[in-house]
Structure formats: C-alpha cells, structure tokens
Amino acid sequence: MSDRSSGTAVEDANSNLTMGIDPYERNWMRASIAILVIFFATISIAGFAMGIQPIGEDQEVDPRTVTETGPWAEPGVREIEPGKYEAYVIAQTWAFVPREIEIPVGSEVTIYVTSPDLQHGFKVTDTNINMQVVPGQVSTMTYTFEDVGEFPYICHEYCGRGHATMAGVVKVVPSSGGSDS
Ligand code: CUA
Fold first, then answer.
1. Which long-range contacts (CB under 8 A, 24 or more apart) does 145-151 make?
2. Backbone phi, psi, residue 109, to 5°
3. pLDDT confidence of residue 2
4. 144 alpha carbon to ligand 1 midpoint, in Å?
5. Is 159 in the pocket of ligand 1 (CB under 6 A)?
6. What is the pLDDT of residues 21-55, one digit of tens each?
7. Measured from the CB, is residue 90 less than 6 Å from ligand 1?
8. To pair with 34 at 20 to 30 A between CA atoms, which of 7, 52, 62, 181?
9. Which atom of ligand 1 is nearest to the CA of 160?
10. What's the mean per-residue pLDDT of the chain?
11. What is the pLDDT of residue 14?
12. If you take atom 1 of ligand 1, which residue's CA is the nearest one?
C-alpha cells in the first residue's frame, strides 16, 4: 500500500519536469549560459569597440638597446599636431625619464612607457592612466587633460629599494591662447 502511493508521487513529480530536466537545474544552466554570453560580450566590446588589447608584437622593443633607439633616445613630450602630443617615458630603477611632462590644458597626449631593466608601473594621479611597464614591451595610453593642474605620476609596482622615489609630474598649464608660431 505504502509502496504504491510513493510510486504515484514520483510519477506526479516527473510530470512537472520538462525534457526530464529538473527546474532548478534548468535555471542554473540558463544562468551559466547567460554569464558566458555576458563575459563574451564584455571581451568583444573591450577588444573590438574600445580597442583594449594586450600588448602585441608591434609594441615590442629590445630592453638592452631601447634607451638609444628612436624616440626613446630622447624621452620627453613633443607636439605632433596642434593640441596633440606624444610623450615617451622611460621607467627605470629608480626614476622616470623625464620627471616632468608639461602640456597646455585640453591637450590630447599619447603616452608611451617602457622599461630597460625590470617591471615598473606608471600611474597618473586623478586620471585613469594606470599601466604596467614591462621590459621589452611598450605600454601606451591616450588621455586628454581637461583641467589645469599638477598630476603626479608614480611607480605602483614594487621594484626594489628606490621604488618609493620613482615619481614625476604632468603639469597642465593654461593654454597660451593660440600657437606661438
Ligand atoms: Cu619602479 Cu616601483
């Protein structure tokens, strides 16, 4: 008697299942698939729409000779077209070259950083500029400085005894009101 009634209960429960999958399990499967879709979309948007990518072969340099190579031989900031600048920065034990980057307010600056020795960091206070600096690789980021002021940059990757002394400053100065030429 008791055997028969329990058998009926199991049959009732089975009729509530779809394709033999327990509803809880089905919901967890849906959640897992949704999370994968979200992750894939996140990576796709970051990589293709926003251009955020790992450092590639085109950004490789030889750390042993980089300080004598091309723009790295004269690190610093240069105007490449009106309102647009590029800054080459070498991060080495234990200083940044240059220690100061001066630009007029509203300038768009593309910063290139590399290291000839070991791993450093490059973080500019009050901006979203925050890069790892790896020997043999060029880290790059473009940023527009909209406010006048001083924006210190620091090494945020512990690199030894002089780590705390690795610092510099971006000086954003009022624009001269026209080009000086
Ligand atoms: Cu360089 Cu810490």
1. 145/103, 145/105, 145/106, 145/107, 145/109, 145/170, 145/172, 146/105, 146/106, 147/105, 147/172, 148/105, 148/172, 148/173, 148/174, 151/124, 151/125, 151/126, 151/127
2. -120, 130
3. 45
4. 25
5. yes
6. 888 999 999 999 999 999 999 999 988 888 777 76
7. no
8. 52
9. 2
10. 87
11. 57
12. 120
What's the pLDDT tens digit per position in 107-134?
999 999 999 999 999 999 999 999 999 9
Structure tokens, 62: 């030889």
Distance 92 CA to ligand 1 centre (A): 8
Half-sphere exposure of 170 (CA within 13 A, CB side): 32
> How far does residue 171's CA lie from ligand 1's centre (Å)?
21
Q: Is the CB of 120 under 6 A from ligand 1?
A: yes
Query: Quick one: how far is CA 100 from the chain centroid?
Result: 22
